[in-house]
Amino acid sequence: MDSALAQMDFETARALYEWQVELGVDEAIGDDPVNRYEAEAERHATEVQAAMAARPAAPSAPPQPEPVDAAAAAAVAAARAATLEDLASCQGAFDLCDLKKGARNFVFADGNPEARVMIIGEAPGRDEDIEGRPFVGRAGQLLDRMFAAIGLSRVAHHPDEAIYITNIMPWRPPQNRDPEAAEIAMMLPFVQRHVELARPDLIVLMGNTACAAALGKRGITRLRGNWTQAFDRPALPMNHPAHLLRTPSAKREAWADLLSLKAKLNGLP
Question: So where are the chain's domains?
């Protein structure tokens, strides 16, 4: 058949072609069958691949910043402070502590920075957050009366008669909750530098948070009244005045601690 077609003249071939068109033939048929479903699927896959190749590449996600070590950053910032004024400025500008976002005021210190006795409390409460000074609420008023009983005051000018007051946390925690371990850790370099610049003879650690930061220990009931070392200085843990307001029977122990503090001061050169 193929050889016959090859020898066929043009006019004869044309006549055969027109005859097939009249019969309704619209597609040439080869010797091998063709699966039209597979052919359509292959055509669609080719079109999809071409479209994907033409599509612009999606932008890559921006690199994520490395997590910041807040405690290390605080240590660097605190080390730069040459004076208490410098320390207050750099600590107040420290933005890695989330407590700062919810507090009204930065609470740095109060009293005479040349005092022989430095009191380190826990964190500002509502009244302290409003005024920007530590220990000004009911607990602060009790603290003033306690130390006045042994001849010490935050308003005294002479270092022998004065006290200097600060807190572990300079910003009020929400609802007066206890500061978290990470929050204490990032503020500890500032407290350390605060002590170095103030150079007190003795330190009073008021409450569990102060003991946790300075001593790495909690349990103020067990710790109070026992002299120890904190920030390379003699330190006396005491019950926080807020605890004494809730538990008046503990005032007897507080009085014993105050007498111990007075005796220690008198025994130092």
Answer: 70-267
